[in-house]
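Lab notebook, design round three. We kept the backbone fixed and only want residue identities now. Task for the bench partner: fill in a sequence for the structure below.
Input structure tokens:
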């Protein structure tokens, strides 16, 4: 069995009187493909924001590869090998696609020593997501699926050990979902552990080795995808009584 890469212990987060997360325990193993699902407002993105350092003040703790993440900034967590995408792509619109991928390389843990090396590495990332032919375009010239690819390219530029793909398939067609799925499978085969947060159930069940369900800020299920989806409490969370 693979070693534990990420361990969350009793993670909780409040916004005033609203409890967004409560006592969440979760382990992710090296090389695993983990799906994280739940209705809107269940705490999935809050959990990722706590993990990534966007919400530094929270209950409980995260341990990544044996190191506690408390008091580390988002970029310091990135240097350890944590990367994420965002539900809504956030490119630098005044920069080219290639320049967008160059930015994390310039501020990453193993910055290439020359401008030529930065561009070469950025182009490698674009090739990995099948965007190399559009390197000189501006983000606004890309299709929706290509903007998702660019978001992934910027995340993998840091060569992360753990990638959190937060709704990377939102709004995509059936064929486009298959394209992003193939990309995430390929990244995983190359050694990247992946947490997929997704509402496209076909995609998350096809991709995930293990499925975790959040409802109202709590983890209510954790196990094999088919078994988890068959649980009455999970069916109720999605379909109601």
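Proposed sequence:
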């Amino acid at each position: 069995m693979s070693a534990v890469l990420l361990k969350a212990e009793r993670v909780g987060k409040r916004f005033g009187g609203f409890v967004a997360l409560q006592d969440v325990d979760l382990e992710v193993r090296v090389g695993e493909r983990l799906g994280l699902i739940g209705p809107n407002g269940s705490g999935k993105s809050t959990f990722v924001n706590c993990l990534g350092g966007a919400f530094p003040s929270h209950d409980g703790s995260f341990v990544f590869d044996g190191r506690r993440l408390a008091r580390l900034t988002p970029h310091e967590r990135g240097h350890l090998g944590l990367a994420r995408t965002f539900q809504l792509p956030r490119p630098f619109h005044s920069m080219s696609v290639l320049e967008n991928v160059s930015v994390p390389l310039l501020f990453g843990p193993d910055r290439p020593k020359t401008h030529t090396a930065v561009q070469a590495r950025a182009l490698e990332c674009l090739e990995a997501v099948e965007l190399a032919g559009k390197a000189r375009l501006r983000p606004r010239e890309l299709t929706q699926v290509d903007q998702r690819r660019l978001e992934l390219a910027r995340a993998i530029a840091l060569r992360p050990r753990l990638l959190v793909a937060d709704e990377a398939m939102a709004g995509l067609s059936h064929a486009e979902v298959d394209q992003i799925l193939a990309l995430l499978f390929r990244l995983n085969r190359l050694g990247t552990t992946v947490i997929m947060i997704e509402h496209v159930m076909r995609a998350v069940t096809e991709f995930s080795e293990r499925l975790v369900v959040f409802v109202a800020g709590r983890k209510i299920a954790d196990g094999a995808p088919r078994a988890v989806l068959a649980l009455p409490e999970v069916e109720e969370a999605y379909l109601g009584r």
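Keep this in mind before ordering anything: The longest helix spans residues 174-189.
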